[in-house]
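pls design
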C-alpha cells in the first residue's frame, strides 16, 4: 500500500511550526518546551506549541500557539469562527496552567502570557485589525512572522 503525500499547504504549515519552535528554543530565556503535554479543563489532553517558564515566581510563563492560517482565503464568517476556535484553544492552555490562582510549576501568583504566531498578515488592513482586535479583547498577543518589530511599532503608532 502506498502512502499518500501530504498536501503542500499542510507541509508548509508543519515547516512553519517547526521553524517558530526552533526560533523560541534558540532565543527565549528560561526553560523552553515545545509540544508540552497538558490536561485541559475539560479533562482532555492537549499540547502547547511553545511553553516558556523559569523558577522566578515574579516572571510570567509564556503559552504560544502557532497557526498557519491563511486569513485572505476565508470569508468574514469563517475568519470569526476560526479566531473564536483559536481563542478557546489558547484559553484551554492558559487554564491548564492556572489552578486556584496558582501556576502549576512556579508558585502562587505566576502570570501566564498568551500569544499566537501566524506566518503572514492578511492583505487587507481591516481584516488584520479585526483579527488583532478579536484576540486582544481576550488578552492574547498576535505576532505576524512577516512583520518586523519596527513595522509593527510604526503600524500601531499610526493606527
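designed seq:
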Amino acid at each position: 500500500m502506498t502512502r499518500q503525500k501530504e498536501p503542500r499547504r499542510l507541509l508548509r504549515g508543519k515547516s512553519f511550526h517547526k521553524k517558530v519552535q526552533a526560533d523560541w528554543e534558540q532565543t527565549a530565556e528560561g526553560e523552553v518546551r515545545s509540544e508540552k503535554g497538558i490536561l485541559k479543563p475539560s479533562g482532555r489532553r492537549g499540547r502547547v506549541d511553545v511553553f516558556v517558564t523559569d523558577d522566578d515566581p515574579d516572571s510570567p510563563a509564556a503559552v504560544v500557539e502557532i497557526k498557519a492560517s491563511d486569513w485572505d482565503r476565508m470569508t468574514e464568517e469563517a475568519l470569526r469562527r476560526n479566531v473564536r476556535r483559536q481563542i478557546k484553544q489558547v484559553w484551554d492552555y492558559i487554564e491548564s496552567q492556572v489552578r486556584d490562582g496558582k501556576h502549576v510549576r512556579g508558585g502562587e501568583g505566576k502570570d501566564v502570557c498568551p500569544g499566537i504566531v501566524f506566518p503572514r498578515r492578511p492583505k487587507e488592513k481591516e481584516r488584520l485589525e479585526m483579527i488583532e482586535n478579536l484576540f486582544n479583547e481576550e488578552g492574547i498577543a498576535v505576532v505576524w512572522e512577516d512583520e518586523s518589530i519596527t513595522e509593527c511599532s510604526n503600524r500601531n503608532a499610526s493606527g
